[in-house]
Specification:
mainly alpha
Length: 109
């Protein structure tokens, strides 16, 4: 994203949108494995420590964080999808406008 020589204007290209979509998707992918590992570990350790006072807290840690972290990952996926859709719509709109200008214009009769 840059001002492309236009003073005070922000210009966003489909390429910029797709690049941002790729970053959001990559963050989602990178977040998935460590989060799953942490949640699985807390559940496993909680079960192994049954009878210890810390067991319940570890179990709650796994179940308590599963939904918010899953929601965060899904928001990143949705953001990626929406940015790609926006880039496609932008390109289609530009093609439609360019097509309208390319069509022969009829003068007054």
């Amino acid at each position: 994203m840059g001002d492309n020589g236009t003073s005070g204007k922000i210009v966003v290209t489909p390429t910029d949108l797709r690049a941002s979509a790729g970053i959001a998707k990559a963050l989602s992918d990178e977040l998935d494995k460590p989060v799953q590992a942490a949640l699985n570990t807390s559940t496993t350790v909680s079960a192994q420590l049954t009878g210890w006072s810390i067991s319940g807290g570890l179990g709650q840690l796994g179940t308590g964080w599963a939904k918010p972290l899953g929601d965060l990952r899904q928001r990143l996926v949705d953001t990626s999808t929406n940015l790609n859709a926006n880039a496609t719509a932008h390109e289609q709109r530009e093609q439609a406008i360019a097509g309208g200008w390319a069509a022969p214009q009829q003068g007054p009769k």
